[in-house]
Amino acid sequence: MDRSRRQFLMTLGVGATLGGAGCVGGDDAATGGSASEAGTAATDGSAGPKPPTADDRLYLAYDTGTLEANIVSGGVPKDGIPAIDEPQFADTPPSGLEPGDPVFGVVRDGDAKAYPQYILVHHEIVNDAIAGHPVAVTYCPLTGTAQGFERGPVEFGVSGRLVNSNLTMYDRGTDSWWPQILATAIKGPLTGESLREFRVVWTTWKRWARAYPETAVLTEETGFSRRYGVDPYGQYNETRGYYSSPRTLFEPLQGDSRAHPKAVVVGTRTETGALAFDKAALLSQRVLTGHIGETPHVAVADTDLATGYVYANPESATVEALADGYTLDGTTYDADALPLDRSLAFDAMWFAWAGFYPESTYVD
Amino acid sequence: MSTDRQPGEAGLTAGFERLGRNTGVAVRGALARRDGRTLFAAAGLAYFLLYLVGLGHLGLGPPDYAVSVVSNPLTRAFRPVGPFQWEPIALVVVGPVELLVAPLNLLLGGVLASLVGLNLAVSVVAWRGPSACRLGPGAGAASGLPGLLSGVACCGPTVLLVAGVQASAGLLSLFRWLLPISVAALLGTLLWVGSRVEPAAK
Questions:
Q1: B40: helix, coil or strand?
Q2: What is the distance of C-alpha A279 from the center of its chain?
Q3: A178 Cβ contact partners less than 8 Å away, ≥ 6 residues apart
Q4: DSSP per-residue codes, A181-226
Q5: How distant is the Cα of B181 from the closest Cα of chain A, in angstroms?
Q6: Residue B7's pLDDT is what?
Q7: Number of cross-chain residue pairs from A and B with Cβ atoms under 8 Å apart
Q8: CA A284 to CA A278: how far, in whole Å?
Q9: Distance CA A364, CA A290 (A)
Q10: If you ran DSSP here, which 8-state letter would residue A37 be given?
Q11: Which among B169, B6, B180 has a CA at the least distance from the CA of A75?
Q12: In the prediction, which pLDDT does B29 show?
């Protein structure tokens, strides 16, 4: 396989801030409620700007003190795994990207972007802008989670610490620490606040490119020298190594034998609780139901992208799968467009989900 | 063991001087012989390559011929990315072989490899020599093992996955000390061999 390389990579030094770099801090409505004023001084006593946070805190099964006490070193220093601060995109995929390789896809205001897993495994965070919105697209290899966060005037970096095997980000404005899955600060000035999130779809390059032929795709011109063909943890697209082994590298906050530790679930959490659907079961059955507290939820499969969407369904409306979508009250809808309140969901390894949310219902 | 006991600091200093001198003699003696030089070069090179493989800086990839360099190599070269590991500043691809160039790690690998090569050369020469050295030829090379392990401690201790061991704070702390332990062990074995050398021996 040929792989073209540029003689010299354009790079941006790690640690550069976006202040004055043309990032507009204006926030449109996004998951998580209204944003704090972007670009203004933090009102929490910290000197730096802060990322936009949600009106309501997401559910936590543990208090922040307990979570902070469970922070462990991942074996690398702060920024030892360097975030990509100046991502480069192309219309054609890098030659190292196979059709069946995982990508993390984002669509926003008609702007579609794909972030290949094989590149993000070396960086874990991309500080980007999509359709003018400053965002962080993040990936934790150890928990199999790809999530998106609004970042406003600040960037996120990799702290080198883990909680429950999960990437713990820090924001370069207040230096608060944010475990990715929790999306809530557990250390620093913003402790207890939750980030504003948006959906990132874990799918394959082939599926994503078919659904969004105009997509841009992140290239290997990250500003860093890496052997991007090498995944230090294992391999997807014929899953091997850490990604399929029942072993975990770090002890989970809590063990749970309801599923294989590395089984993929489509998980969602609200302000009141958490719920997980077995992804394989969802893709085969297409409609699954569960509860968060007293509130019924329904999950539907998007068979084109091999992903799932979760909705609050307080009236327990009947949702049925058809060949071309889902019916509700006699009308047919796409999987991502049911007339219900959609709850942000993402793929995760079961051990990580169960460790953070031990009381979560598991639906298979 | 020396029977020439001199109490006090002066005696200790003299002992160290003699140890250093004898080690120097042993090293020069080993490198003066063809088998010593061959062992030094072969063991050193093998260790150096293993260290780079362990670090993930050397391996196989899609065939290509290319060199890519980051735009600010001087700054990047000193940026730490792990315990005794620094940021690569270039990727060199020659056919199927990929090499990440991290200057400080190349330097460190060179130092470790030289120590391993010297240990093995001196050990083997001493073993073959007239003095009744009870040192096996593998001891010196084995001292370099912690250094090799330190190389595979990049990107989180994924080596533990292979070993099937769960990471702990103690183990992760140990990773930080693997390289200094390796250097100390290599120097220690070299001095030990030196202590067994009879400078008068031809």
A1: helix
A2: 16
A3: A156, A168, A169, A170, A171, A184, A185, A186, A195
A4: TTTB--BSTTTT-BB-EE--EEEEHHHHHHH-TT-EEE-S-SSS--
A5: 17
A6: 55
A7: 125
A8: 10
A9: 10
A10: P
A11: B169
A12: 80
Instruction: Calculate what percentage of chain A has a pLDDT beyond 90.
Output: 84
Distance from CA of A229 to the nearest CA of B (A): 7
A274-278 and A361-363 as β-strands: parallel, antiparallel, unpaired?
parallel
* B9-32 helix and B34-55 helix, angle to the nearest 10 degrees: 100
Those residues with Cβ within 8 angstroms of residue A161's Cβ, 6 or more apart along the chain or in another chain = A71, A72, A73, A74, A168, A177
- Grouping H, G, I as helix, E, B as strand and the rest as coil, residue A200 is coil
Residue A153: partners with Cβ closer than 8 Å, 6 or more residues away:
A18, A19, A23, A25, A38, A39, A49, A134, A173
Q: Which of B91, B156, B169 comes nearest A225 by C-beta?
A: B91
CA dihedral B30, B32, B35, B38 (to 10 degrees): 100
Distances from the Cα of A116 to the Cα of A12, A99, A219, angstroms: 20, 11, 8
Angstrom distance (rounded) from CA A126 to CA A79: 13
**Given this model, what pLDDT does residue B8 score?**
63
Q: How many other C-beta atoms are found inside a 10 Å radius of the C-beta of residue B78? A: 11
Please state the pTM of the whole predicted model.
0.84
- The two three-digit tokens of residue B25, written as one number: 């003699």
Q: Are A144 and A155 in contact (CB under 8 A)?
A: no
Q: What is the largest CA-CA distance in chain A?
A: 60
Residues of A in contact with B89 (CB under 8 A): 225
DSSP class of residue A216 equals E
Read off the pLDDT of each residue in A113-117 and give the average, rounded to a whole number: 98
CB neighbourhood size of B107 (10 A): 11
Distance CA A361, CA A274 (A): 7
Residue in the structure block whose two tokens are 């569960």: A290
What are B141-172's pLDDT values in tens digits?
Answer: 555 555 555 555 444 455 566 566 666 666 66
Of the two residues B81 and B146, the one the predictor is more confident about is B81
CA proximity to B121, closest of B98, B96, B140, B147? B140
- The residue count for chain B: 202
For B166, nearest residue in chain A (alpha carbons): A249
Q: Residues B105-121: pLDDT tens digits?
A: 999 999 988 988 888 88
* Cβ-based contacts of B62 with chain A (< 8 Å): 1-3, 95-96, 229
pLDDT in tens, A233-284: 999 999 999 999 999 989 999 999 999 999 999 999 999 999 999 999 999 9
pLDDT at B79: 94
Query: Which residue from B minimizes the CA distance to A228?
Result: B61
**Tokens read off for A321:** 């799968």
Contact A38, A152 (CB under 8 A): yes
pLDDT recorded at residue B129: 60
Interface of A with B in 267-296 (CB under 8 A): none
Q: List, in sequence order, every residue forming a beta bridge with A287; answer none if it has no partner.
A: A300
Say if the Cβ atoms of A232 and B91 lie within 8 Å.
no
C-beta neighbour count of A100 within 10 angstroms: 12
